[in-house]
Each structure stands twice: as structure tokens, then as C-alpha cells.
Amino acid sequence: MPEEFVEQAKRGLASAALALLADMVDIVGRSGSEPSAPGEPPHVQTGLLQLSMDTKRLDQGMRWLIGPRAPHAHLLEFGTVKARPRPFARPAFDRMKSRITAMVARGK
Predict the structure, then answer these.
(1) If we measure between CA atoms, which residue out of 106, 102, 108, 95 comes closest to residue 20?
(2) Closest CA to 86 of 68, 100, 99, 101
(3) Which of 10, 38, 54, 56 has the most Cβ atoms closer than 10 angstroms to its Cβ?
């Protein structure tokens, strides 16, 4: 691949990673005095999930890890035997995927 194309893609991926992270933080940042209903994004109870959101660049910027580091994040996203899911990562990706594609294509 031409080097210019690769660098443009890396810039776009970095911008997209940060935009997706911001959307996840926004979804999780909605507070409520009660826990959220099943199927709804989790309400802020302790703030740990929201504070644990992070990005990590892999492979010189062509792959990224985006999401929470909180140990209970997967339990909220996918649910458990006793608790239905309260997704936040997949809804953020679904809302952002056309914007992510455009950011990668533009390199911004």
C-alpha cells in the first residue's frame, strides 16, 4: 500500500477510536438514582465503568482496543445468568459506524 494511504488511514483510525470512546462515555455517563432497566445502558452508580474507558493503539495504529477496563464491564454489556444485559459498547458502535467509516476514509 502507498505510505500516504497508510498514514491517512492511521490518522482516521485514531480519530475514530477517540470518537467512539467519547460516545461510550456519553452513553454510560447518564446517571440515575436507580439501576437501569434491562436492555438500557447502565446508569452511573459508582462511576467506575465510565472512568475505566480507554483506548489502546496496537500494530502501529492499524488496530485499536476501545472500551472499559472495569472488571464488571462485560457483565453489564452481555448480562449474566441472573441479570439481563445493559449494553453500552455495541450501541455506541452502531450509532457511530457510518461516522467511523467516514473518518477513516478522510483520515481525520
Answers:
(1) 95
(2) 68
(3) 10
